[in-house]
């Protein structure tokens, strides 16, 4: 693709071979295989392709084509009136002297932007509405002339000068910027257009001033201000005699004129415009030296757009040149002004053409996501922050050539190909399979608009759908179809699309899309002034109207541009990282047309190495490959007299514990227990439980810990599922499962006897890979699943030299539920290090004061509390934790406030934030804290433990970059063996590890979302599926839902976790017989089947479960429970005088007959302009409120409450009569000015006394500002 003539790129083919083949013959052969747009317009024969010194193709050395290289059809003159007219239009636009009837628009140098201009000229000349797609389908002159016969006649009226006696409306684009200015003060700076040029040489200041003045005379848009008329904004054209506001600043005496000039440039970008007062364009002429000047021009976007800059520069150059040479204005008069366009646009907006286009956009964007949830470095501010940064970027020549090549193969433009890659990147970053991207279009579809300065640019929202995981070719085809369809529907103002779709209103981000992609294909116009050398000056303007704004253009052999970003959301390093991902993705996309988008690599080698090796792999450590009981026996031989366990009943030494376990193991063997079998232990936290579990292991069996507080029905189900051979329970237990040997242990006396009773060593040697225990967790199908964990997995957890390694002098609280995996470290971490286990009685564990007293009394050094318990207990227990060396928390991300409470009370030396599911032997990551964390940031979950590996992968199994959310996968030494008797589920969740060095290794899909942070720690983001965590317990609501459906009267049930009150709680939503669905009754029924932590806190009855358009449950619309856990959707009449007044105003503005106190302004059809009108009416009634309050409180009752809190402000009457011609001191009682001082001030006010207002109108409002 060459651009030998600026603004006219064309395809050129370079060939080696038989040079006797003509360009026309080559083109004819290619035309049988390629669409017209992909045919080169020139064919250059070479003896050899030029190469660089390193052997690569030297594209820069390829010669420009000569005339004989052009593929020109045998000339045939245009026939008929239409072909002749088209030939004239083509000649003007393409800059060619002769156009034949067989010539192709694109072969002659045409492109999509020139195509749009051609359509505009056809409309003006023939009154025909030809879609742009018709030009792509029939690019030859004769074919296009035939297409005109079937084209629709344009129904749009001509744009004519409007009646200036009536108030002039704003265009739709102007109205949006006016509304943004009213909604957010910061938007005033976000929509500035600032630029500068360095002028070297002789400058004629008078000519420059006259040229700028004449621009204001010529373009009424540049001297427009904006006011309100009958609650609606209007534009007012100010008289031209004021001239252009150009401030001359002499910096020649400054010690650093260049730095001072830069300060002025920065000041320009920080100085807002007042839309009501104007002027909305200004300039500064900085004199740095006699022949060195800098011209700064700043405009508000409401009066100009990017195209306007080209018009302004071109006309400024023409006017300056003429005036500097003593000539008059050389520019032809304008037939219309921007205000005429605004009036015209408002008049035809309801026509049938617009309605057809609106129908397209309604269908195109229906159901599309309205927020692109990119991973941000900081939470999104409540109000959009327009502060921005920018990254300059470029695609090298090789990648640009590859992009052009694949574009040719698939009949797309380079813009479409890059857009497809950009959409694919955004989808991966956000984890969403549909993305909506904004795209600006010039919107000058009529030729009479081309020479005007004004805000014509329109925005289109393009929806890119990757739900089917398309191939590269399929995605390119989809984007091509989407882009061409959008180009055929260009006339609908974006503001109309917003009102049509009525997306959720949120002042924290733009509606419909938050990412813009601008492709610059408008030929640049350089300012040229006689006797001056001009150089563009980079503006220091740092603003971002969107989360991301990618601006690109073709520049010879490269694609160059910038990536703007909101600095309130993103760090510069994040944007740089994403651009590297984009380049890698684009490289992959150009290499394989058939590859699935999901499988394209998007990490370069250094990034991949960092994530998989540096971040994701724990240290390598040697761990003994012996079973737990043998490791314990070795410890008992080393420290036989050390205290192993302490309980209310006393203490037990290591030697005694080993002996007691041997005796129980002997008894179990006599009962028939064999290696590989399972024994259920239904015992509370106690010495007996520890003896029992150790004895089971000595038999080569695995223990199945049960929670004795669970319903018997549930325990029997678990015993049956685990297929246990023996049940060990307490004397008071009534459990009596069939075909299971039951062994009762009342206390340790049951195990007393002489050592002679042990006739054979009971300990059986099993490999470290053998099962040590089976622990049950909640199941999504309603059935709990048993996780089988090996001896080696536990040994790796407790014996490695990591932050959780225990010491022989530790006193460790046995405080966890035995059926919960926190007990693993408490028991085995202690016993394999010679530490002491201190059993915490159940009543003590339920009382934070009692637990704190026990910690202090027993001088405990290690305590494990799940995050939910720690959050609740911290205020009461923190002062009593002074003896702790280590406080471990897990089960969920710890509350930073709770940790701060602990540290401030001196409650622990180190707090260890841990993470890990039951499938990984308690935890596989750890983050050690020695001081209070930052309470404003989420606490990471740390780094991998030794011999473990962590991967954060997208839904297709590809690693994701730093900061991007993905599903956390675990691998390595602590991985469980799988699920007991659930081979299908095991295969689903324990999958082959594609990143492992050794074949046959597996990784576990946790279902948890996480992301890597830049420091190599993991950030936990919550569950990826319906599974939740309550009080540290992992719960799959499906099990609760299954239990609910078995309750009388329940037809359908859904359970979710909500945190409306700050505390996470389970809420059940039910459909069924209302007469018997009482929360107390339901809870009672569930309590017989489910443990306490799985019982919902609220029960909400619904007539039907809400569904999405595709028939899936719409969890996002499930209502928060009220005090009675009842769903209230019925109409509730406004209460009180203020709510009734508001209801009347809403009814009038929204055109609805009835407004309830719980109705939402925007849900009833309100939009931004109506919101401003409502606020204006409230102000006239004496209520002072910002329009943002309505966005924050959109319900009638909420807004009324806001108004009452603000209270009405009484505005005193204005003492200055509108007809007043002279201001006197008695009219201004709030200021001490003499008559002479007043006269001096009034003299500086445009319009004199008629434009002076009484300050008392704002005095009371100002007094309320603190």
From TrEMBL:
The keyword tRNA-binding does not apply. GO terms for biological process: amino acid activation for nonribosomal peptide biosynthetic process; enterobactin biosynthetic process; monocarboxylic acid biosynthetic process. Residues 83-152, 1139-1207 form the Polyketide synthase-like phosphopantetheine-binding domain. PROSITE patterns: AMP_BINDING, PHOSPHOPANTETHEINE. GO terms for cellular component: cytosol; enterobactin synthetase complex. It comes from the Bacteria. Pfam families: AMP-binding (PF00501), AMP-binding_C (PF13193), Condensation (PF00668), PP-binding (PF00550). Keywords: Phosphopantetheine, Phosphoprotein. One of its GO terms (molecular function) is phosphopantetheine binding. Gene3D superfamilies: 3.30.300.30, 3.40.50.980, ACP-like (1.10.1200.10), alpha/beta hydrolase (3.40.50.1820), Chloramphenicol acetyltransferase-like domain (3.30.559.10), Luciferase, Domain 3 (2.30.38.10), Nonribosomal peptide synthetase, condensation domain (3.30.559.30). Coiled coil: none annotated. The keyword Phosphoprotein applies. Its cofactor is pantetheine 4'-phosphate. NCBIfam families: AA-adenyl-dom (TIGR01733). Belongs to the ATP-dependent AMP-binding enzyme family. PANTHER family: FATTY ACID SYNTHASE (PTHR45527:SF1), NONRIBOSOMAL PEPTIDE SYNTHETASE (PTHR45527). This is Non-ribosomal peptide synthetase.
């Amino acid at each position: 693709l060459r651009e030998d003539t600026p603004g006219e790129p064309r395809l050129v083919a370079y060939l080696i071979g038989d040079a006797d083949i003509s360009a026309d013959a080559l083109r004819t052969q290619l035309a049988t295989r390629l669409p017209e747009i992909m045919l080169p317009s020139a064919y250059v024969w070479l003896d050899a392709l030029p190469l660089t010194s390193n052997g690569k193709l030297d594209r820069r050395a390829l010669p420009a084509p000569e005339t004989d290289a052009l593929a020109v059809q045998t000339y045939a003159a245009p026939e008929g009136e239409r072909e002749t007219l088209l030939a004239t239009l083509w000649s003007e636009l393409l800059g060619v002297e002769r156009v034949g009837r067989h010539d192709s628009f694109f072969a002659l140098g045409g492109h999509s932007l020139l195509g749009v201009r051609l359509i505009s000229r056809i409309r003006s000349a023939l009154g025909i509405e030809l879609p742009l797609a018709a030009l792509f389908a029939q690019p030859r002159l004769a074919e296009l002339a035939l297409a005109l016969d079937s084209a629709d006649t344009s129904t749009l009226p001509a744009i004519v000068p409007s009646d200036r006696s009536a108030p002039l409306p704003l265009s739709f684009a102007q109205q949006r910027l006016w509304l943004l200015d009213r909604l957010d003060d910061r938007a005033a700076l976000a929509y500035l257009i600032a630029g500068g040029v360095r002028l070297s040489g002789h400058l004629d200041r008078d000519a420059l001033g006259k040229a700028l003045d004449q621009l204001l005379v010529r373009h009424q848009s540049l001297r427009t201000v904006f006011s309100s008329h009958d609650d609606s904004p209007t534009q007012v054209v100010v008289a031209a005699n004021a001239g252009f506001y150009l401030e001359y600043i002499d910096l020649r005496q400054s010690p650093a004129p260049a730095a001072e000039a830069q300060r002025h440039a920065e000041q320009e970008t920080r100085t807002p415009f007042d839309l009501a007062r104007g002027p909305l364009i200004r300039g500064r002429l900085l004199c740095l030296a006699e022949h060195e000047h800098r011209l700064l021009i700043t405009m508000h976007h409401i009066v100009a757009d990017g195209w306007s800059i080209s018009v302004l520069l071109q006309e400024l150059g023409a006017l300056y040149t003429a005036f500097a040479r003593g000539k008059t204005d050389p520019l032809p008069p304008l037939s219309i002004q921007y205000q005429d366009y605004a009036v015209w646009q408002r008049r035809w907006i309801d026509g049938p053409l617009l309605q057809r286009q609106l129908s397209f956009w309604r269908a195109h964007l229906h159901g599309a996501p309205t927020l692109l949830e990119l991973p941000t470095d900081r939470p999104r501010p409540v109000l959009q922050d327009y502060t921005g940064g920018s990254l300059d970027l470029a695609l090298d020549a090789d990648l640009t050539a590859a992009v052009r090549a694949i574009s040719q193969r698939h009949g797309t433009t380079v813009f479409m190909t890059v857009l497809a890659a950009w959409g694919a990147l955004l989808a991966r970053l956000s984890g969403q399979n549909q993305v909506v991207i904004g795209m600006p279009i010039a919107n000058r579809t009529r030729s009479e608009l081309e020479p005007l300065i004004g805000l014509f640019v329109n925005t289109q929202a393009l929806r890119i759908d990757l739900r089917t995981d398309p191939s590269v070719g399929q995605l390119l085809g989809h984007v091509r179809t989407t882009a061409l369809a959008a180009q055929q529907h260009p006339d609908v103002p974006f503001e109309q699309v917003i009102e049509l779709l009525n997306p959720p209103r949120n002042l924290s981000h733009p509606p419909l899309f938050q990412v813009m992609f601008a492709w610059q294909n408008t030929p640049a116009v350089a300012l040229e002034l006689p006797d001056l050398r001009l150089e563009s000056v980079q503006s220091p303007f740092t603003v971002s109207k969107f989360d991301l704004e990618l601006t690109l253009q073709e520049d010879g052999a490269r694609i160059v541009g910038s990536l703007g970003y909101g600095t309130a959301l993103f760090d510069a390093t994040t944007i740089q990282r994403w651009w590297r991902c984009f380049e890698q993705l684009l490289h992959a996309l150009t290499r394989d047309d058939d590859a699935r988008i999901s499988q394209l690599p998007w990490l370069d080698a250094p990034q991949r190495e960092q994530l998989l090796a540096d971040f994701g792999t724990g240290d390598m450590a040697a761990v003994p490959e012996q079973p737990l009981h043998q490791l314990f026996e070795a410890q008992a031989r080393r420290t036989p007299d050390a205290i192993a366990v302490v309980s209310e009943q006393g203490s037990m030494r290591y030697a005694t514990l080993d002996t007691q376990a041997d005796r129980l193991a002997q008894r179990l063997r006599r009962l028939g227990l064999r290696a590989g079998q399972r024994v259920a232990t239904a015992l509370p936290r106690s010495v007996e439980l520890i003896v029992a579990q150790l004895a089971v292991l000595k038999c080569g069996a695995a223990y199945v810990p049960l929670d004795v507080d669970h319903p018997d029905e549930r325990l029997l189900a678990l015993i049956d599922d685990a297929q246990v051979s023996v049940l060990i329970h307490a004397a008071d237990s009534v459990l009596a499962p069939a075909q299971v040997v039951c062994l009762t242990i009342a206390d340790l006396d049951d195990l007393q006897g002489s050592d002679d009773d042990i006739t054979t060593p009971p300990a059986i040697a099993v490999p470290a890979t053998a099962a040590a225990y089976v622990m049950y967790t909640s199941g999504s199908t309603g059935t709990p699943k048993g996780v089988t964990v090996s001896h080696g997995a536990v040994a790796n957890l407790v014996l490695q030299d990591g932050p959780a390694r225990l010491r022989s002098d530790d006193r460790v609280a046995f405080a966890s539920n035995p059926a919960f995996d926190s007990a693993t470290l408490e028991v085995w971490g202690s016993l394999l290090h010679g530490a002491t286990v201190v059993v915490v009685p159940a009543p003590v564990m339920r009382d934070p004061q009692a637990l704190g007293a026990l910690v202090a009394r027993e001088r405990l050094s290690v305590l494990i509390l799940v995050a939910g318990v720690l959050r609740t207990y911290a205020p009461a227990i923190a002062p009593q934790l002074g003896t702790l060396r280590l406080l471990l928390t897990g089960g969920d991300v710890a509350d930073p406030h709770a940790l701060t409470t602990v540290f401030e009370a001196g409650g622990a030396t180190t707090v260890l934030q841990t993470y890990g599911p039951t499938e990984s032997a308690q935890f596989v990551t750890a983050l050690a804290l020695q001081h209070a964390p930052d309470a404003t940031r989420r606490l990471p979950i740390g780094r991998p433990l030794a011999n473990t590996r962590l991967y954060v992968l997208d839904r297709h199994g590809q690693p994701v970059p730093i900061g991007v959310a993905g599903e956390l996968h675990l691998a390595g030494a602590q991985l469980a063996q799988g699920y007991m008797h659930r081979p299908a589920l095991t295969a689903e969740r324990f999958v082959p590890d594609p990143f492992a060095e050794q074949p046959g290794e597996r990784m576990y899909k946790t279902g948890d979302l996480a992301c890597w942070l830049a420091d190599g720690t993991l950030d936990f983001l919550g569950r990826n599926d319906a599974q939740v965590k309550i009080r540290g317990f992992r719960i799959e609501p499906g099990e609760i839902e299954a239990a609910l459906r078995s309750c009388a009267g329940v037809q359908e049930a859904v359970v979710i976790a909500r945190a409306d009150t700050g505390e996470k709680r389970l809420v059940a939503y039910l459909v069924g017989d209302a007469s018997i669905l009482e929360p107390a009754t339901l809870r009672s029924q569930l309590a017989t089947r489910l443990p306490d932590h799985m019982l919902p806190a609220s029960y909400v009855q619904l007539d039907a479960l809400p569904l999405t358009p595709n028939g899936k449950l719409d969890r996002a619309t499930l209502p928060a429970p009220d005090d009675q856990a009842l769903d209230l959707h019925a109409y509730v009449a406004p209460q009180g005088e203020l709510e009734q007044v508001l209801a009347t105003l809403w009814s009038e503005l929204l055109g609805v007959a009835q407004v309830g106190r719980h109705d939402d302004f925007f849900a009833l059809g309100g939009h931004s302009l109506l919101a401003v009108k409502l606020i204006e009416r409230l102000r006239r009634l004496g209520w002072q409120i910002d329009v943002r309050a309505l966005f924050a409180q959109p319900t009638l009752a909420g807004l009324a409450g806001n108004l009452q809190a603000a209270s009405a402000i009484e505005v005193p009457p204005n003492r200055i009569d509108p007809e007043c011609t002279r201001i006197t001191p008695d009219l201004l009682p709030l200021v001490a000015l003499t008559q002479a001082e007043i006269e001096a001030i009034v003299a500086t006010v445009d319009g004199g006394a008629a434009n002076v207002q009484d300050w008392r109108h704002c005095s009371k409002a100002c007094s309320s500002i603190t």
